[in-house]
Amino acid sequence: MTEPTHIQETEEEISILYGAQAWIDFLQDKPFPVRASSLKRLKTLLSKDSTMISHLTTLVRSDPILCLHVVRAAETKHAAKGSHVTSVEHAVSSLGIDSLVHLSQTLQPIKLKSSSVQQKQYLRMLANSHHAAIQARTWQQMKRLPFVEEVFIASLFYSIGLWALWLNAPLHMHQVRIKIWEEEIDPTLAEHDILGCTMQQISMGLSEKWGFSPLTIQAQDPDTSPSKGMLTKLHQRALGDPRLNEQEIRDLNHLTQERHFPIKLANWLSLIVSRGWRTTRNIKTTDIIGDYLGLETDQTLALLHKLCADASREYHAPGTLAPAAEMLMIASSYPSNYKLGDRELAVLTRTYPIPEKPKPKSKKLPKKLIPQATTLTHMPEIFREQMIYTQVAERLLKDYHLYTKHSHIIQGLMQGLGKGLGLQRIVLNLVNSKSHKMKAAQVVGMEKDHPFASYEIDLQIPSIFKKLCDKPACLWITAANRQQYTKLMPDAYSEQLPKHDCLLMSLFRDSGAIAIIYADAGENGLPLTAFHHKRFRYLCSAATLALKRMGN
């Protein structure tokens, strides 16, 4: 047997790893080491004349990494025929004994180190994915739905991005975990801040590169993920909420009948319970699963616990505490082994990519002396041109004959905030509901190469911008509440906020959010007051009324 090796280490020179494409290019050809015990069992089976396809299938299905290698090899073979693997058995039989023998000779065994947090997290991610696959397969069987084994494979590979990241970018995952557990940042936003994209985007990109089935890619596609509002309605349906109308119920029925729905649901469950069985999110997820399966709450919990225990027995991760075992323990807010220790961090820093971000297009403008007297503690509570402010407000509240397009209303608002109220810097961020993007379209009072002038964000990533697009709201960010709000912002945005206050408010029309307005008193401006906040909110609210009055 080949001498066991450690998780691979690389010293190759690479460009800054930031953004989905950079990660996909970096990870697509990296090897995935197999547990030595699993590889030994595979070679033993392949050496026996009495071995049957069913014996090999059982072994491959029980180890996520073996399953990954076999399915990838089989997909490569099927690509020439324009077909895809539909089950683990299909993959094993497609390769045959000779191809499996050759494959087993190319695989790297992994030597487990009990002190390595990197390895523990890698194995934990594999166990979580295996747990999700067991859940999804059983649900399909209970509902007597087709494509049971295809759903198993798609569920197993849903989080391959996490497997690859813990293997090849542990320092990045270390930073992600710090943001999640210590800074209490949403996991998806934490991934985006450190990686420049989400784990789901990386997983989808790798699946496309490796030629996985359309169902696997569809399940990983962020565009097929239900919105927060849709998830809330799913929970309402689970509770029998009478406020749901017929159209909403039809939409929910359509969603739950999608082939990718149980795959996403099983992986949400697996990832959530890996952080604790007793969280509010897990309780809601359990309610949704119970509704999906037509079971009572106690029946649902019993089933989920049993399947979790079954998965833990089938694929035990040495040195890690399985979610099945955590069901028996007293709830604790202390996450064990969520980040690398100092000694391991020092060793890995020499061999793995260091977390870096692309430099912003321009640095903040150099600070200038404030011409106001030193006795001023805030912006003067006066208009720059009250007549302009009042005129714009009246035009927005009334049906002004020259406002014939949505853009006319927004430009009037920009004029009222700048020339009327006197706010120094204003950014118009347009919202595209179809692509789920927010992108800066116009700036006033700042250089064109300022990061805010070209800022773009995916609104599917949980952030303050996503919340502003869910419902109209006005935010006044001050020194007192800055930390609270920056937790909900991407680092690339919060790092560019001025020293003092800023204002954010969303504009809506009947079809939803159309824009988010940003305004402040300048990089070196004095703090704002309730005077500015009240009138900023008033003018933006008037613009929303005008937009809704004009219609879509």
TrEMBL record:
The residues covered by the HDOD domain are: 32-226
Task: Spell out the PROSITE patterns in the cross-references.
Answer: HDOD (PS51833)
Q: Which InterPro entries match?
A: HDOD (IPR013976), RNase_Y/CdgJ (IPR052340)
What keywords were assigned to this record? Membrane, Transmembrane, Transmembrane helix
Tell me the domain of life: Bacteria
Q: Which SUPFAM superfamilies match?
A: HD-domain/PDEase-like
Q: Which organism is it from?
A: Neptunomonas antarctica
Q: Which Pfam families match?
A: HDOD
Spans traversing the lipid bilayer? 147-167
Protein name as annotated:
HDOD domain-containing protein
